[in-house]
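Database export, one record per block. Field names are fixed; values are copied verbatim from the stored entry.
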Amino acid sequence: MRISEQGKQLIRDFEGLRLSAYRDAVGVLTIGYGHTRGVRLGQVITRTEAEKLLSADLEPIERQLTADLGEDGVLQCQFDALCSFCFNLGIGAYMKSTLRKYVKAGRDDEADREFGKWVHAGGRVLPGLVRRRKAEAELYAQAGGVTALFVGVLVMIAMGLAIAFFREIVL
């Protein structure tokens, strides 16, 4: 699977765009939309370069999540939420997490609550992480609405077929 534009926008919104290198909340050199590999103090990039770095940073996350979950393992909204989570915390943290266990077991209600446990950086709760995890959990939970809608449509179709069948027999 690939992250959608909605998923990328979630990352952009929380990471923010910084075209000059800076130190993040825990002192890591960062540039663009949260890019950290090979960043040098004083480095400056363009918006286009920031977008390319974001896409390059997301590729291994997409690949590893897809390998772990399978092509049809989750809905797009869930995949987007997981990409944002992994972009921020690293795929290694996700792979060892209870969140992953719940995702793989299809326990979506428990999975969307797990996001809220990942709000610490540098030993303290960061309000920005609280907001981000809430947004990720809400995006992940949209799957429940999609699933409920799908089931509702299937029930309506089945009822329509049953009524049509009944009319044929009676009439």
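Remark 1: Residues 146-156 have pLDDT under 50 and may be disordered.
Remark 2: The chain has one domain: 5-143.
End of record.
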